[in-house]
Amino acid sequence: MDCCDTPGLMPVSEAITTLLENTTPLTETEVVSLVNAQNRIAAQDICSPLNVPPFANSAMDGYALRTSDLTESNTLTLAGKSFAGVPFEGEWPKGSCIRIMTGAEVPEGADAVIMQEQTTVQGDQITFTASAQPQQNIRPIGDDVKAGDVVIPKGTLLTPREVPMLATLGIADVTVIRRPKVAFFSTGDELRQVGETLGKGEIYDSNRYTIRAMLEKMHCEAIDLGVVPDCPEKLRETFLSAASQADVIVTSGGVSVGEADYTKDILDQEGEVGFWKIAIKPGKPFAFGNVNNSLFCGLPGNPVSVLVTLHVLVQPLLAKLAGHTQWQPAIKLKAKAETRFKKVPGRADYQRAIYRTDENGNLLVSTTGNQGSGAFSSLSLANCFAVLEQDRSHVEVGETVTIEPFNAVLN
């Protein structure tokens, strides 16, 4: 049997496919002002209401002229000026030129602009030291965008690249898809809030901070429901509360073998949930389904497992839910291992690593050390995952490794 067919373990790609097949994009929209449009998803194709530029303008500081005038003499008389926002007006005699600045409207009849560095000036006499080609240094109407062009397709995340474009077009308000609402909480009697004093056997809950930070980077509305003790009544109450106000429920803890009894019983009654064992490390235990009308993603309890499963499995689900049709997984590159990576075949291993570029432009990668699912310090040192394939074993120095540089969600 191939180790990729490890009994009872679902391959990562199959898990993602199942998650996406069971996710329907949101359709509710809202109108926001352009100043509030960044990091929102365009709900419809955005078309240009005008030409950009709306008039022919100069690409240089120089002189606008009729090229036919240069056939008789390379010296022309200055007839006026055209500045940005203050175009030339009036008669433009034959045998003359117009002083023009970058971005200024090209006078009607001009078919070239010669840059000022290719002239000599004596009073109002301008001598041109270079020839001109028709339309030289002139930006025509609609050179960048034509009226009616789709400038931003539906499903695009509006970033500092798109928002200025909308401003250029004079668009003040944008129709966007509403943000996904994600309710999240941690489970466990051993968990305490940051700032509290720890008792014997207790630990601080870091998972909610991971989940909130990543959800906000994914442009979701994060609803923090706190820490829920291992109490069936309280757990049921929290699940129902979460389902009443969120599109997605995300939990950490309570989905490992032997820990899921309360969660499983409640979810069997209130929804439809499957408990999976995924061929991923860290993060093998995972639950997915629905509670009433909300999707449910149950993450493991270990801190690094939470981050990895949220990054690898839940992130594409939330992108589809948000209507972000342009979303792409983090880029994968090839790098040479500078250190040994320990690995047992059977699960895709997302190991914390640091990549760098050597003096020849080659990508190199090394481990950050302890790869335990509770060792968050090695994650804080990393700038990428070394993604070791499911059927791979130990990686020796010099071997090629697939790396996944952290994307915007983890940076």
Q: Name the overall outline.
A: elongated
Note the gap between the termini. Answer: 39 Å
Oligomer: single chain
Which residues sit in consecutive blocks of at least 5 with pLDDT less than 50? 1-5
Per DSSP, the total helix count is 7
Helix content: 10-25%
Averaged pLDDT: 94
Class from secondary-structure proportions: alpha/beta
Q: Indicate the CATH topology of the largest domain.
A: Molybdenum Cofactor Biosythetic Enzyme, Chain A
Query: What is the CATH architecture assignment of the largest domain?
Result: 3-Layer(aba) Sandwich
Q: Taking Cα atoms only, what radius of gyration do you get, to the nearest Å?
A: 31 Å
Strand order of the largest sheet: 8-5-7-6-10-9
| Number of DSSP strand runs | 27
| Largest pleated sheet | 6 strands, mixed
Q: How many domains make up the coordinates?
A: 4
CATH superfamily of the largest domain: MoaB/Mog-like domain
Instruction: Identify the CATH class of the largest domain.
Output: Alpha Beta
> Which percent band covers the strand fraction?
25-35%
